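Good morning,

Attaching, inline, the backbone tokens for the sequence recovery test we're adding to the shared suite. The designed sequence is right after.
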């Protein structure tokens, strides 16, 4: 049952936080990954090793997909797969900012069914399971529709609002904000702290699998940048961008985006 998987994810996320906090603001060893894949630290690897050992011991028949584990095709034959980012927002972690997260999901037949996004430095635990709502520290999330269409607050990176990405080279006049962690951006949209989140770049599944379920269970529409369905556990574990917002705003954003 998803609920049983959720309890497993929550416990693992909390334990991951204990591990990561031992390295946080302690000048952990870090280096750049190959192919311009970004930074990694000894904390990322320690959390990854813990999660892989703990989660697969509990569910040996599940597949495994993690940013910090070499991928194999074995997971493609599994009906359920752990999709994990040990530390989402590693740049923030290195810089001593608190907006990094552990992002854990169970995906079944291509769709997330259980999710935990935990920010240990902020003591924020987001969780969701399919059909049962999304929660922050035990309080159910119910984001309101934006009150002022001229004051939409959206989480996105600056390149998102380059004119070429929008119909008639005209970006909408949204108030733009940024967080390093994609999982945290999706959680904040699910919470209603911001009206939407989006990224137009090809996006790794481990960055968003947990956040997608959070947003969906909070009532948001979540699609690719073209409005298509998101499917996980792909052979190449990437999706075509993400747009997450309540239905009316989601439609508005998709209609204003230029063709990919």
């Amino acid at each position: 049952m998803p609920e049983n998987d959720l309890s497993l994810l929550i416990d693992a996320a909390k334990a991951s936080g204990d591990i990561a906090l031992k390295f946080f603001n302690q000048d952990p060893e870090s280096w750049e990954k190959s192919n311009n894949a970004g930074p990694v630290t000894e904390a990322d690897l320690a959390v990854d090793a813990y999660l892989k050992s703990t989660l697969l011991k509990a569910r040996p028949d599940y597949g495994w997909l993690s940013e910090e584990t070499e991928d194999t095709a074995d997971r493609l034959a599994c009906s359920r797969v752990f999709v994990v980012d040990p530390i989402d927002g590693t740049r923030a972690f290195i810089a001593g900012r608190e907006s990094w997260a552990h992002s854990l999901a169970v995906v079944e037949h291509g769709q997330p069914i259980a999710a935990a996004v935990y920010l240990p430095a902020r003591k924020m635990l987001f969780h969701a399971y399919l059909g049962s709502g999304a929660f922050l520290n035990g309080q159910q999330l119910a984001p309101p529709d934006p009150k002022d269409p001229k004051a939409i607050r959206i989480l996105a990176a600056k390149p998102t609002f380059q004119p070429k990405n929008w119909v008639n080279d005209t970006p909408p006049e949204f108030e733009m904000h940024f967080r390093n962690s994609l999982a945290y951006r999706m959680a904040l949209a699910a919470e209603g702290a911001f009206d939407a989140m989006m990224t137009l770049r090809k996006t790794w599944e481990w960055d968003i699998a947990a956040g997608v379920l959070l947003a969906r269970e909070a009532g948001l529409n979540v699609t690719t940048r073209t409005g298509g369905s998101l499917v996980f556990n792909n052979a190449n574990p990437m999706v075509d961008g993400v747009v997450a917002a309540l239905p009316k705003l989601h439609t508005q954003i998709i209609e204003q985006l230029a063709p990919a």
